[in-house]
């Protein structure tokens, strides 16, 4: 048996969402306030549609209202900017996010669009003011995905103090803010990018390796040492070469239970085995990370699996940020809602208040 521990984000995400649910219930009961998140979606990117729908479902489950603002695929930047300005000025909106990626013609304006969101409503924590507060370790909100990495480590009692953490990927969304938060926790941080030479010689020295490059299954066991903790932030879609469209249609027509019975009999399988085979053969795509998960099992100390790892915490932190921004706007005391004003470190330090 492998002694590699599989790190899961569900427990930490559930704790965050439970805290949000309790706070929003109290907020509604005592102040008649329900946090509201505005989601801007440009175009009809299928993956973005799924992400937006998932966010709305999870938000509703914890008492956060969402409103979707759709813009046409061919919209110009000025129209997008006007919408952001309108949402900034709308007192009924507590938080705003812009779903990425933008259509090709708007990609050069991504940064301008992100920083146009008011720092007081910046649920993704991309505004320079909020990033600056993260730099100073005085942030009320933090970047959702990068903080999720720390929350998974916290969940499994991994202390980063003095550890060598190697981050592969220096994006504004994950790599850079994560490096800031790790430095604030007194880790020793090395950041790598596409131009880094002899990258294996660096990653193999890592106590903790975090990868976020958007390249499916790029990192195998040759990049790590046996004691390394590997955090996979990548989310990639791969086509299932064994996809059976006829079988998928049969599932729709006959139902899984009925089909599993005949499938099991025809292939000499148990019902459980038949269902597993059907699930595999009727999936057009698979979601995988930047790490070759199967190859790392038995070759490192701990590793996250995709899906089921950091991604679960990204949405939970987005909703947590929405709640925090709402309380700040309404000038309500965090402690009254079971929350702490700062939740990174140094909780005894009140100089920021």
Automatic annotation (TrEMBL):
Signal peptide per UniProt: none
Boundaries of every Tetrahydrofolate dehydrogenase/cyclohydrolase NAD(P)-binding domain copy: 143-241, 281-325
Organism: Psittacicella melopsittaci
MF (Gene Ontology): methenyltetrahydrofolate cyclohydrolase activity; methylenetetrahydrofolate dehydrogenase (NADP+) activity
CDD domains registered for this protein in UniProt: NAD_bind_m-THF_DH_Cyclohyd
Pathway this chain belongs to: One-carbon metabolism; tetrahydrofolate interconversion
Reaction equation(s) it catalyzes: (6R)-5,10-methylene-5,6,7,8-tetrahydrofolate + NADP(+) = (6R)-5,10-methenyltetrahydrofolate + NADPH; (6R)-5,10-methenyltetrahydrofolate + H2O = (6R)-10-formyltetrahydrofolate + H(+)
Descriptive protein name: Bifunctional protein FolD
